[in-house]
Write a structure and sequence with these properties.
alpha/beta; D-Maltodextrin-Binding Protein, domain 2; 2 domains; disordered N terminus
């Protein structure tokens, strides 16, 4: 049978009152039995204090929150760097209480899968392009349409102006926007010919991202869209399943695709920003003060990302020119594409 130890009684019992104290002797002395118990007493006190400390440490650990962030690009891309900067800022401003672990290269699934996980709390954050998001969120289709705005900044300005309406649409899907990021340049690349006119595009089988708007656009040009993740491009080229791709300019350069797809044409058809998203299910476990910190950290990455993106794109252009693969300026082609789309829509 286990008995509780009364520490106070044990200590009182250790001291014996001397009834016949004389000068030079203390009135109290230690019992012989208690002298033998002192090592045990010390051990009990040490274990008790360690237990209290361990309990405090355990409670401190339990107060920490670890959240997952689904990132689809490689760590060196400016948008992926923005994701990591956001995570680092949240960690710093919450004194380490909220740790966001960014997992790169689509490790947590495709954009569609990540969006589903975001809705039920499998992940807490993700970053994806508006082109993909518009497939699933009603009201965003107009921003994903080809040549929807004259310049990338115009898209972000209009999105911010309609932030309340957009967030209402997103809240129905248990999602909220933390930030919009400047879109990178897009390009159409292929292995066979320069694209100087619409007829040069016709007949090509082009890899496209997950986006109904892009697929409709490519089909309207007489080409054949083949939706797939970017990591499937090399094998698909080797098997002649595709002739080229619609992709971001930086992944094209930094992914060393120029040797396989030397014909590259820049296009402004889709000036769609990246969107930093959070799931309400995960945010619901965080108090309102720290939710506000998360939102502020999201908005704060915009400026640094914009500068980093501009710098990286200039360096990528220089790198291609050094390789003798000068990209074609797609302005003339874009004008032709705009006229074609306008005629197909009846001039609207």
């Amino acid at each position: 049978m286990t008995r509780n130890i009364d520490i106070k009684k044990l200590l009182r019992g250790c001291f014996l009152r001397r009834s016949g104290a004389v000068a030079g002797q203390p009135r109290f002395g230690l019992s012989i039995a208690c002298r033998a118990l002192f090592p045990l007493l010390g051990a009990v006190l040490i274990m008790t204090s360690c237990g209290l400390y361990a309990n405090d440490a355990s409670q401190e650990y339990d107060r920490r929150i670890v959240l997952r962030f689904a990132e689809f690009l490689y760590p060196g891309h400016p948008s992926a760097k923005a994701s990591q900067a956001f995570a680092g800022s949240v960690y710093e401003k919450t004194d380490g209480r909220i740790e966001i672990r960014v997992q790169y290269n689509g490790e947590l699934g495709t954009e569609r899968e990540a969006l589903e996980q975001l809705q039920f709390g499998g992940i807490a954050f993700t970053r994806m392009n508006l082109l993909s998001l518009a497939d699933d969120i009603s009201g965003l289709e107009a921003y994903a349409a080809p040549f929807a705005r004259a310049a990338p900044q115009d898209v972000i300005t209009d999105l911010r102006a309609e932030e309340e309406r957009i967030n209402l649409a997103l809240e129905r899907e248990q999602i909220t926007v933390l930030a919009y990021l400047m879109p990178e340049m897009k390009c159409i690349v292929n292995a066979t010919r320069d694209l100087k006119a619409i007829e040069d595009i016709a007949g090509l089988r082009l890899r496209t991202p997950q986006s109904r708007a892009v697929n409709s656009f490519i089909s309207a040009l007489g080409a054949f869209p083949v939706t797939m993740e970017e990591n499937g491009v090399v094998d698909s080229l080797a098997s002649d399943y595709i002739d080229g791709a619609v992709m971001g300019f930086l992944p094209y350069v930094q992914g060393r695709y120029s040797s396989l797809l030397p014909h590259v044409t820049l296009t402004s058809a889709f000036p769609c920003p990246d969107v930093l998203l959070a799931g309400w299910v995960s945010l619901g476990d965080i108090d309102s003060r720290e939710q506000q910190i998360i939102r502020e950290c999201g908005r704060a990455v915009f400026e640094d990302h914009s500068l980093e993106l501009q710098k990286a794109q200039r360096e990528a252009l220089d790198e291609l020119e050094a390789l003798g693969v000068g990209p074609l300026d797609g302005k003339l082609l874009d004008e032709e594409l705009k006229q074609l789309l306008s005629s197909q829509s009846g001039g609207r």
